Fold this sequence. Notes:
- By secondary structure, the chain is of the alpha+beta class.
- Helices cover 25% and strands 26% of the residues.
- The mean pLDDT is 86.
Amino acid sequence: MRGKAMDLRGKRFGCLVALRLAARNKWRQRVWECRCDCGRLTYVITGDLTRGHTKSCYCGIARRRELNPNWGGGRKVSTNGYVFVKAPVGHPRPDANDYILEHRLVMESKIGRYLKPWECVHHIDGDTQNNSPENLELFKTKGYHTQWHRRLEEIALYD
């Protein structure tokens, strides 16, 4: 014999707060609509909430990353001095770890569109960590950028 149905409204289960009884699944289990601390809605059956099997919407990966003392806030510097930042959601060209070169992101913001893969961003002062918009110049291709540096080297040789 089953007992009286539990009312879980307003109760906290880890990072989740039960909002309302949403439905029953195909096995007739009660499904609760819950809000996670991250703001997302998720749906969880009563037993998973009460037994502690489900405590979040699985956003905990991001939360653990941010609590780690080695987390740099989504910003890291490569061995050759370029700054990488976490790519915005939906960016067309992040790397495998979801990072993008900061100077490319700044240039995209400056010109109001995504850069083409062949376009090259030049640091005017030569400091690869100075990614202010005034310090960046866009070249059509890497070849044009290389020509620019060769000309600068030639000028320096004759001075």
